[in-house]
Every structure is written in structure tokens, then in C-alpha cells.
Design brief:
The strands form 8 sheets. A 7-stranded mixed beta sheet has the order 18-19-17-16-21-24-25. A 5-stranded parallel beta sheet has the order 5-8-11-1-12. Helix 4 (99-129) runs antiparallel to helix 5 and helix 18 (474-491) crosses helix 19. With 663 residues, the protein is of the alpha/beta class. The longest helix has 31 residues, at 99-129. The protein has 24 helices and 25 strands.
């Protein structure tokens, strides 16, 4: 509990910026050290885990994060080749080469092409002149031997040399020859991450191009898929894409499990040609938000059989001095990617405060970078000054685009269609604080809500009208049960509670949920039972447990700002007061309007940790003890327990005295 109102320094975060010297570099690797460490472990050559699941909030561009993680990644590049099979034309050879071997192989193919074109020309000339062709055969044999010798020196395996010799002998016998490109195809695996942006059969496994059956004397034309280019690398796929193509996922999983890629998985006619199987050593990174990953695990509970490594990206980071420097550097890097100017020193504080507000904590910074880039981009395009004032203008400009619901709500207060009382005293009536959320476009905003309570003779049952009208959710219903338990435990632990009551959220016409109004509802009931009035200039928010402890709530900044906004709309001249949970101190990050109002004594904010501490701010009386008749609890206890007639009063006193001497 704060005996005095909170000072300005507790209402907004402060950051140490003395040694800040940001660069213009993307800093995901430094900002997310745990995820980066997991990625490095996964990509080690001696790590045989095949799948890494990277889960992050929806606002993350996970491809950008992984790209930064992999900027120093340099996987060993292996090369692969399809070679026409003269013996079985429909079963081309599929071989693996080193990077050096691939270069030598390509060079050898070009040399063979030159040799064949040269010798075909010589053959035509010899026929015209009637000369013998023996010299040609000798020339071809010598040239081929030299070509194969060069491949051997490049450490190309002997079986590959045999295949090349077979191909050469086949090509020599052809009646015509133009290019050797029709008889082989090579490709390299990517040395870094390979992103599969479309999870389709064509993009993953590739496609056979249409080819007439008579062309089986040449190598079938193939568009390779992502799996081919990641045969010895790392393939990145979105989990949401996998969910849309479940059958394709299980085929890919089978390839990873067996380390074999069968060419019958390609899109197109598989009868014309089907190369020999390709041995792969592919690692897979699946990225997605929590819902997508959960659905993926439900789709395939056996995914862990592949050897699974899991990592999760956080929503925010702690605002340490080192992290602040990295964070501002990263923002500059993101701005540079978009062609925008770096942050000025005058913007540091505003950007950091807005980031802290996004994650609702004074000591943390949100990693939702796009939310920060949007106002900075607006600031540049609208040519606002690159300082705190300009940043505020940019935020207001963006919020004005999507705040029609707030404007409509404000109009109802201005026209007095929504009844709110911010002065004087009322029995059984209190101002609670709420946050209005919308699906689709529209920013969340806070506003006060009038809560009333009536009590009458009964059996201690307190009804929630919102719940009975099916306008409240389960959490709200639970909070009313907690209030019921608290009041009965406090005042009627030895007998039944002689009163029942109703609690209503007045002029609430939409569904509500949550327990943040349970403190206000309990105070309204205490007022109705005791007949003691509540100060109407004071608004309350906070959850309550059965022991009377006040618990933290969400949207604390929006609630306080909304209360001040409405107070100004209804032209309230009396200073207003807000009572909030002490547990919410670290979430305070209030606007300049609120800070100005606090400075001018128009608004006072107090924190409490129990309902007993909150009572004096509302009733101008202490909560007190049950037998203290000058306290709120004492007045209620007397009303509930003391009989009205003298004989009954004497009997009650005698019983209490008797209880004192019991052992």
C-alpha cells in the first residue's frame, strides 16, 4: 500500500542511456542467445538430429531471424549429377560429387562435347575424301583417356569415370550430335538455409517436364525441388504450410527417416523416366507460432522419432544496458533495410518506452519490431521532428486511423447517454475500470464502468446479473464466487450470512469476462451492506482472492488513461483518484497526458495489496476489526450478528464472554 499517491518516476519506465552507442546491424543472434545457441548446436556436423522446431510469436519474421542465425553458417557443399544411362535409358544414373569434383565433371563434359563435335566434322570430311577412319578412333581414345585422367586427379570416383566412358561410347555411335547438355544435369546443395516458400509437390520434390516417349534417348528434363538443393543442407518450411498438405508432409518425413529420395515423388509423368534413388542428408527446420506447432504435433505425434530439437523465441527481452544497445542497433538495422534514417539520440527514450508499453513491463522490451517501425516510418513520411514530440505525433496519427470505436464510446459520455458519476458519494455504487477489445481493426482502450450493488434479506447468495443474462464468461463468474467466499468467511464463519445481493455492470451491453472488477464489486457490496457511501471520484481495478488479497490485472495503462479521458469529457473539475493493485507497479507506462495530470494534482494513483487497504480510499473509514464499530467491517459485523432486542443482546454478550473462557 502507498500512503501517498505514486510519484511521477513510478508511473513510467526509465532507462540508462549514458553508454549507448548503437550500430546499424541486425542483432537477432545477440538478442536471442538461447535460440541462437540451439541453432548452432543443431547445425553442427556431428549432430544427427534431423528436425528442429522453432516456435515464435506471430509477429516474428522467422525467416529473417534464422537468416541472421545462419549468417556465419557455411555448410559443406556437395554436388549431384544425373547422367543418361545408355543401358537403361529410363533409369538415369544419380551420383554424388564433391564441389571440386563437380567443377572437374562440368569441364570434362564440355571437353567431350568439343571432342565429339570435332570428330563428327572430321568424319564427314573423311567420307568425302574417301580416307580411312582409323586415325579418328585413335584420336578419340587418346583424348578420352586424358579427360578421364583429369577427373581422376580431381578425385572423382572410379564408378563415375566408368559411367562417363559409357556415355561417350554411346554418343559416338549417334547419327547426329549437337550438345551434351541433353545428357546430364548437375546441381549444388546450398551452403546455407534453403527456404521452401510454397509447400507443394512441385516446390518440394520437383517436376518432370513433359517429354514425348521417342525422346527417351536423352536425359529426361527435370525441374529440381527444394529437397534436391538441400540434399546435404538445411531446408526451412512453415508449419502452417505443412498442415495444409498433410500427405506431402508424411512423404517428406519418410525421405528424412530413410535418407533416400525416390524420384517417383516428383510431379509429372513417372513412366517416361525414373532416375536412381538419391541419398540425402537433409536437416529440416519447421517454423511457426504456438497454434501451428501444436496442430502439427497433433497431426503427427511421431515426429519426435526423427530426432527433434525444439526452441522457442520469447516475446520480449530484459532491458539491461547491454540489451538496450543491441536493441537500438537492431532497430537501426531494420530501418536501414527499409531505406529509413537511423534513430536520433532524442528518439531513444521514446522508442524504448513505447517498446516497454507493448509488453506491459517497465523492465522489458518488446521484440515486436514491426510495431516500432510503423510509427518511425510515419514520422519520416510525415516529416515530423525526429524527437519525442514527433514520435508522439506519429503514434497519434496511426491510432486515429483505427479508433472509431473509442470515438463512439466517448460520444456516449459526452452526450450523457452513458451515465457516470465522478463526484459526491453514493451507497452501493462504484466506478470500476475496464478495457474494451475488438476483433479486427480497432485499438484497445480503457473506460470506466459503473458497478452497482443491492442487498436484501436472504441466505448469503450474491447473484451476478451479467452471468444470469449470459453476458459474462467463466472467469467473471468465478470472480463472483470468490467474492461470495470472501464475504461469508469474513462475516459469517459461524452462521449463515443473512443477506443476499445483486451486482450489476450498468449499461453493459456486450460480453464481458475477466476478474479485474472483483475488487470493485466486493467494495460495492460492502457499501450496500453497511449503508456507507463510496467516494464517486475514485475508480478501482484489481482482482481479489478469497483471503482478501488484491491481485494484478491486465491493461492497467489503458484503464487509467481511459478514466482520465472520460473525466475530461464529462467536464469533471474535481480531482480524481485511481486505486490499483500494488502488483501492477512494474506495468505502469502512462501517457504524457496522465503524467501532466498527476503533476498538476488532477489525478492521484494509489496502490494496494489487500482489500483492507483499499477501503479507506473509498469510504474515508478504516477497514478495522470486526468488533470496532467505527470501522467498515465493525459496522457490517454488528449489523449481521447483533440481535435487535435487549434480551437477545444480553444472550449474545454472555455467549461471547463464555467463548472467551473456553480452552
Amino acid at each position: 500500500m502507498t500512503e501517498s499517491a505514486l510519484s511521477i518516476d513510478k508511473l513510467t519506465p526509465t532507462f540508462s542511456l549514458e553508454n549507448v552507442n548503437p550500430t546499424n546491424d541486425i542483432q537477432w543472434s545477440s538478442l536471442l542467445p538461447i535460440a541462437k545457441s540451439s541453432f548452432d548446436y543443431f547445425t553442427q556436423p556431428n549432430n544427427h538430429q534431423q528436425v528442429m522446431v522453432c516456435q515464435g510469436p506471430s509477429f516474428f519474421n522467422l525467416h529473417s531471424v534464422l537468416a541472421d542465425f545462419a549468417k556465419d553458417l557455411n555448410l559443406e557443399q556437395l554436388a549431384y549429377a544425373l547422367i543418361f544411362n545408355p543401358i537403361q535409358p529410363k533409369r538415369p544414373y544419380c551420383i554424388e560429387l564433391t564441389q571440386q569434383g563437380q567443377k572437374a565433371f562440368e569441364q570434362a563434359m564440355l571437353q567431350i562435347e568439343d571432342l565429339l563435335n570435332k570428330d563428327f566434322g572430321s568424319e564427314l570430311l573423311a567420307k568425302e575424301l574417301g580416307e580411312e577412319l582409323a586415325f579418328m578412333e585413335e584420336s578419340q581414345s587418346d583424348s578420352l583417356t586424358k579427360i578421364l585422367q583429369g577427373l581422376s586427379e580431381a578425385q572423382v570416383a572410379k564408378p563415375v569415370l566408368t559411367l562417363i566412358k559409357q556415355l561417350f561410347e554411346y554418343l559416338v555411335e549417334l547419327p547426329s550430335f549437337s550438345t551434351i547438355q541433353k545428357f546430364y544435369k548437375t546441381w549444388l546443395s546450398k551452403p546455407t538455409l534453403n527456404y521452401c516458400h510454397e509447400f507443394t509437390r512441385t516446390s518440394v520434390f520437383g517436376q518432370y517436364l513433359s517429354q514425348p516417349i521417342e525422346h527417351c534417348s536423352e536425359l529426361v528434363e527435370v525441374n529440381l525441388g527444394a529437397i534436391h538443393h538441400s540434399a546435404s543442407g538445411i531446408l526451412v518450411i512453415n508449419a502452417e504450410d505443412v498442415l495444409a498438405e498433410a500427405k506431402l508432409w508424411f512423404e517428406l518425413k519418410a525421405c528424412l527417416a530413410t535418407s533416400i529420395l525416390s524420384w517417383d515423388k516428383l510431379q509429372g509423368d513417372k513412366v517416361t523416366s525414373q532416375p536412381q534413388n538419391l541419398s540425402i542428408n537433409t536437416k529440416l527446420v519447421l517454423v511457426g507460432n504456438a497454434n501451428a506447432i501444436a496442430d502439427l504435433y497433433e497431426l503427427d505425434p511421431t515426429i519426435r522419432s526423427l530426432g527433434l530439437l525444439e526452441t522457442e523465441l520469447p516475446l520480449e527481452i530484459e532491458a539491461t544496458s547491454n540489451n538496450i544497445d543491441l536493441y537500438l542497433s537492431h532497430i537501426n538495422g531494420e530501418l536501414a533495410l527499409r531505406g529509413l534514417s537511423s534513430l536520433t539520440a532524442e528518439l531513444y527514450e521514446s522508442v524504448l518506452r513505447y517498446s516497454a508499453r507493448l509488453c506491459e513491463h517497465q523492465k522489458y522490451l518488446s521484440l515486436d519490431v514491426q510495431e516500432l517501425i510503423a510509427p518511425l516510418q510515419s514520422l519520416t513520411l510525415k516529416q515530423f521532428k525526429p524527437n519525442s514530440q514527433g514520435f508522439t505525433q506519429a503514434l497519434e496519427l496511426l491510432s486515429n486511423n483505427v479508433n472509431n470505436q473509442q470515438k463512439f464510446s466517448d460520444l456516449s459520455y459526452r452526450d450523457k447517454q452513458t451515465n457516470i458519476c465522478l463526484s459526491g458519494e453514493q451507497v452501493g455504487q462504484i466506478n470500476g475500470l475496464s478495457v474494451i477489445d475488438f476483433a479486427g481493426l480497432g485499438l484497445s482502450f480503457g473506460e470506466p464502468i459503473r458497478i452497482t450493488a443491492n442487498v436484501f434479506q436472504g441466505d448469503g447468495d450474491f447473484n451476478d446479473i451479467e452471468r444470469k443474462a449470459e453476458l459474462a464468461g467463466n472467469v467473471h463468474a468465478k470472480s463472483m464466487m470468490i467474492i461470495h467466499g470472501f464475504l461469508n468467511q469474513l462475516f459469517a464463519s459461524e452462521h449463515h450470512f443473512p443477506y443476499s445481493g445483486n451486482v450489476v455492470f450498468e449499461q453493459s451491453y456486450h460480453d464481458i469476462d475477466g476478474d479485474s472488477a472483483s475488487l470493485a464489486s466486493a467494495l460495492a457490496l460492502l457499501s450496500a451492506i453497511s449503508k456507507l457511501p463510496i467516494q464517486q471520484n475514485t475508480a478501482v481495478t484489481g482482482a481479489l482472492d478469497q483471503k482478501g488479497n488484491v491481485l494484478a490485472v491486465g491493461g492497467i495503462n489503458e484503464k487509467i488513461e481511459g478514466y482520465l479521458r472520460v473525466a475530461r469529457i464529462v467536464s469533471n473539475e474535481q480531482p480524481i483518484v485511481v486505486v490499483i493493485p500494488e502488483a501492477n507497479l512494474n506495468q505502469l507506462n502512462l501517457s504524457k497526458d496522465v503524467l501532466s495530470a498527476v503533476e498538476q494534482k488532477q489525478l492521484s494513483i494509489f496502490t494496494v495489496s489487500t482489500i483492507h487497504q483499499a477501503i479507506p480510499y473509498l469510504f474515508n473509514l478504516p477497514a478495522g476489526e470486526l468488533l470496532d464499530e467505527q470501522s467498515v467491517y465493525g459496522k457490517i459485523y454488528k449489523l449481521i450478528n447483533l440481535p435487535n432486542d435487549d434480551i437477545g443482546l444480553i444472550r449474545w454478550l454472555l455467549k461471547k464472554i463464555s467463548d472467551l473462557f473456553k480452552f
